[in-house]
Amino acid sequence: MSFRKFLYDYILAQGFRLQDYPKLFLWVPILGDVYRIKRRSVDHLQLQRGDKVLIYSIGAGFGLDFIQERIGETGFVVGVDFSESMLKIAQEKIDKNGWKNVRLVLADLREYDPSLDIGYKVDAALSIFGYLDKEVIAGLINALKSAGRIVISGPQPLKGWRKIFYPITFVPEMIFGLTWKNLHQFPSYIDIFKKNLDEVIIDEKTFAKYFVAVSGIKK
Predict the structure, then answer these.
(1) CATH superfamily of this structure's domain 3-218
(2) Which uninterrupted H or E stretch holds 76?
């Protein structure tokens, strides 16, 4: 078992239940930004009734409320995550709300192939603060139908004078397994969007422009 999986299965999972109670932390500048950029990530998908959505690193199910409001009962969500504990919390949320149009998949994103598992192209793809690499992003894009929308979000390197904020942005996130190397790979993911997608939007309206949501439309 990797350290990251141990971290999310046995240490951090229960803490993610707090995401459903934003009033507890919205007043905290950086924590509030995390919630707001995650919610805007869903907004950038511009979901419609009946849309089929693929979510990588669905975790404890954050965003399902907003997604369900938009896709309705005729839409469908497939959520993938590598943590059994996180998916258990997500399933509790699904059961509590009586959602019948969500399927959770326990899988390592580096090994998961949506074309084999789902069997159809989705209208929208989403990764909110989840594991990313170039192959994972390529898989997400490939899972989209033509003109489908994709959004990824997470932290990005600080620039210029904003680097003074690393102690209160990057350092606390190390508890979630974020590394300096991972942080500095995010700009390359934005480049992938710019090369392979249309109408790319970079939303970095957060404290020190640390958190960012990037959206685009498949050509």
Answers:
(1) Vaccinia Virus protein VP39 (3.40.50.150)
(2) strand 76-81
